[in-house]
Every structure is written in structure tokens, then in C-alpha cells.
Amino acid sequence: VITLHKRNCPTAIRMASQQGDSILAIEFEENGQFLYPVRVQIRAVDRYHLLSDLIDCITNKLHLSISKLSTETIDHIAVCTIDFAVHSASELDSAIKSISVIKSVDEVHRVDIE
User: How far apart are CA 88 and CA 31, in angstroms?
Assistant: First the structure.
């Protein structure tokens, strides 16, 4: 049985310390035919059409499909969590850069999908 874990996964770290030699580090080459699920969290000053601009950036500008979206606004600060799929790490970087230049967006970062 082969099980894959991210390098920073607590289970992988524990297994590496217990089973050392049976744990292998591998690298995956990017493949444009595969889609990888990602989650980003966005903090922004809430404003009219903020959510619309985020969706437009991801779906129309970047041509990526959103699978899940949640948002909460407290004291005029919106925190949006958006799940979508990318073809590569560079495509994710491009998406994060594109989202970060949207008016009133203060912070964009990837978060682990649990």
C-alpha cells in the first residue's frame, strides 16, 4: 500500500521519524491535463461588488472553476474562502497575484484543504 502525504503533514512527519528508511520523498512534474484542488483565503475591506469581482477574476479572467465559496463579513472586513482547481503551482501563483490586485483586497494566501 502506498500513501501520499504533504511534507508538512503531521502524519508524514510522525511516520518519517518512526519508519525513516521506508519513507520516500517524491516530486511530481506539472501536467496540464490534471487539475489539483486548492483553497485560498482572501481578506478585504468589504465593498459593493467585491464578491462579484472575485468570482469574475477566477472564472472569467483565469478560466478556473470554483467548487466552493464561503464568505463572512465582520466590521466591514470580508474573509472569503474559495476552492477551485489549478493545473500547476505556477497557475496557482498567477491566480493569487490576480486576486491580490483586486480593489480593496488586503491579503490572499493558500490554505490547506482538510
Answer: 7
What kind and span of H or E run contains 93? helix 89-100
Q: pTM of this prediction?
A: 0.77
- Whether the CB-CB separation of 83 and 66 falls below 8 Å is answered with yes
Q: Which amino acid is at 85?
A: A
Residue range 3-16, pLDDT digits in tens = 676 777 777 778 77
* Long-range interactions of 91-95: CB distance < 8 A, separation 24+: 91/62, 91/64, 92/38, 94/62, 95/40, 95/58, 95/62, 95/64
User: Can you tell me the distance from the alpha carbon of 11 to that of 48, in angstroms, rounded to the nearest whole number?
Assistant: 43
Cα–Cα distance list, 68 to 75, 83, 94, 113 (Å): 24, 5, 19, 11
Place of cell 477566477: 58
